[in-house]
Write a sequence for this structure.
């Protein structure tokens, strides 16, 4: 399946291939060659874990149309630099769940919002979806702000567990907040993108 790149003013979103997934786990120099981009020393982004690739491969085998839903985010510069990821998978026939992550040195520039907005537009325009959702943790303020700037609203508790406990001054924090789910429906997304008269 040939999926086109998605270009924004500052980014190119490229579809990840199985070869890229394998290279990211075993040989970053090969990944750099495959994507024709530099890979920062801080790669991968926080919360990007190898088991995600197994999940993505299963998704693509079961739902081939979702191959283009799993993308790398490439910063458009000379030379190109891999700065993060954005991607999704079908929760139901009418809803996709998305996720995004940037390496620390490329955060706080609006790139996560720019990439997420472009990816949502791709999902709504190229696929017959009614909703897009995302999970985050309420204490991840920057992640929440990305969703809010993209038009998402808090919907319900999420089902994603915290992978690692957080620590503060050597003591594990108690009562860590659980994941929450944000949603954006097609009608709300269209209203945000209708040009004023």
């Amino acid at each position: 399946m040939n999926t086109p790149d998605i270009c924004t003013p500052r980014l190119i979103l490229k579809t990840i291939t199985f070869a890229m997934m394998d290279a990211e786990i075993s040989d970053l120099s090969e990944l750099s060659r495959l994507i024709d981009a530099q890979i920062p020393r801080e790669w991968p982004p926080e919360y990007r874990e190898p088991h995600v690739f197994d999940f993505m491969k299963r998704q693509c085998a079961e739902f081939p149309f979702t191959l283009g839903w799993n993308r790398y985010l490439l910063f458009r510069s000379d030379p190109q630099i891999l700065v993060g990821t954005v991607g999704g998978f079908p929760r139901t026939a009418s809803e996709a769940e998305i996720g995004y992550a940037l390496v620390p040195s490329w955060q706080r520039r609006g790139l996560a919002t720019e990439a997420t907005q472009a990816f949502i537009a791709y999902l709504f325009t190229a696929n017959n979806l009614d909703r897009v959702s995302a999970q985050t943790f309420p204490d991840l303020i920057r992640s929440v702000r990305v969703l809010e700037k993209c038009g998402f609203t808090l919907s319900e508790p999420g089902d994603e567990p915290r992978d690692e406990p957080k620590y503060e001054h050597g003591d594990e924090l108690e009562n860590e907040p659980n994941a929450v789910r944000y949603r954006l429906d097609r009608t709300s997304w269209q209203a945000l993108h209708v040009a004023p008269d």
Q: What stands out?
A: The beta strands are 6-7, 11-15, 70-75, 81-90, 95-102, 131-136, 153-157, 167-168, 171-172, 180-185. The chain has one domain: 6-192.
